[in-house]
Write a structure and sequence with these properties.
The chain is mainly α. It has eleven helices and two strands. Strands 1-2 form a two-stranded antiparallel ribbon. A hairpin with an 8-residue loop joins strand 1 (198-199) and strand 2. The longest helix has 33 residues, at 116-148. The model is unreliable at 150-157 (pLDDT under 50).
Length: 320
């Protein structure tokens, strides 16, 4: 029998934020049962239900302290409020950034004519350094957020029931927002850097731009504008807290604009520099390089379909 109200929902929401995802259901069920039992005992003694509930919650203490006790670990650098999202984002970025950096550096080193061991060492070393950079900056950002946000109280600080956060359904998480912004920012940096990148296929030979230099006049600035608009949309989504019809519509427009522009560039054979393509034709890896635009187009198409569908699905689910 449930004897509790929204106060308990808010209290449980605050506690479970610092509990590992795979333990939240069990801890939430156990804690709610305990609260219900204590409230019922007080009601049997003649106390008002709401007053009894507030007394029980106050006796349980600060939800951050209780969360740390249930999780069984001391979270000093990043508190339990943001720790789950911190770990989730760190794992996500490491699984994306490290492989990409490793492959790109390995490919670029191979193009420069280095031997196999030099290629492997350059790729692995760059991937390792990228992992360290990702871990450092993500940890630094979350540590600063944890200390500056209004909800980042320590487990010894005072608290009141009114400090409990409101319960939100399907709220857009900080980790998801930072992950999206990081990915979009990396694309912007890549588009800004790539037009100036040139590769020499033979020692002593002139360097050749890989991408078509003509893209820098219209297409690359256009793609950068779309990506910057997408970053702004991510901030607005987080500020709003949930997906809405206007946000899903704008997200679809931006995603499709980027996809159609990029796929048009690839389909019209404008992506690679013709001089670079001619230079690699007699080489062993020429077939692989020729497949790259097609692979990129398929990746963009799949990611776009997923992104647009996910936005509208979350709008529909949020109305349930």
């Amino acid at each position: 029998m449930t004897t509790t109200t929204l106060w308990t929902d808010r209290y449980l929401n605050a506690v479970l934020k610092g509990i590992p995802v795979d333990q939240r259901a069990e801890v939430g069920k156990e804690l709610r049962k305990k609260i219900d039992g204590c409230v019922l005992e007080r009601m049997v003694q003649g106390e008002d239900p709401e007053a009894a509930e507030k007394v029980v919650l106050r006796e349980l203490g600060d939800p951050i302290r209780l969360s740390a006790r249930y999780s069984g670990r001391s979270l000093s650098l990043i508190g339990p409020t943001f720790y789950p999202e911190y770990i989730r984002l760190l794992r996500l970025l490491l699984s994306i950034v490290v492989p990409i950096v490793t492959v790109v550096v390995g490919f670029a080193t191979a193009l420069s004519g280095q031997d196999v061991w030099d290629v492997v060492l350059a790729a692995v070393g760059s991937g390792f350094m990228a992992g360290i950079q990702v871990a450092f900056w993500v940890t630094l950002v979350f540590a600063m957020i944890d200390r500056r946000t209004d909800d980042s109280r320590t487990i010894t600080s005072g608290w009141e029931l009114d400090d409990l956060p409101e319960v939100t359904v399907n709220r857009i998480g900080l980790g998801d927002t930072l992950a999206s912004i990081t990915g979009l920012s990396l694309l912007v940096l890549f588009l800004l850097w790539q037009p100036t990148y040139q590769e020499s296929l033979d020692p002593g030979s002139p360097s050749i731009p890989i991408l078509n230099p003509e893209l820098s006049t219209v297409w690359i600035p256009l793609l950068i504008v779309v990506l910057l608009a997408s970053i702004t949309l991510e901030l607005i989504k987080y500020r709003t807290g949930k997906w809405t019809v206007p946000l899903a519509a704008v997200n679809s427009l931006l995603s499709l604009s980027f996809a159609f522009s990029a796929i048009y560039i690839i389909a019209s054979d404008q992506l690679l520099n013709a001089e670079f393509t001619a230079a690699i034709t007699p080489r062993d890896f020429a077939e692989f390089v020729e497949l790259v635009p097609t692979l990129v187009a398929w990746v963009i198409a799949v990611v776009t379909v997923f992104d647009v569908t996910e936005g509208w699905w979350k709008v529909i689910r949020g109305r349930d």
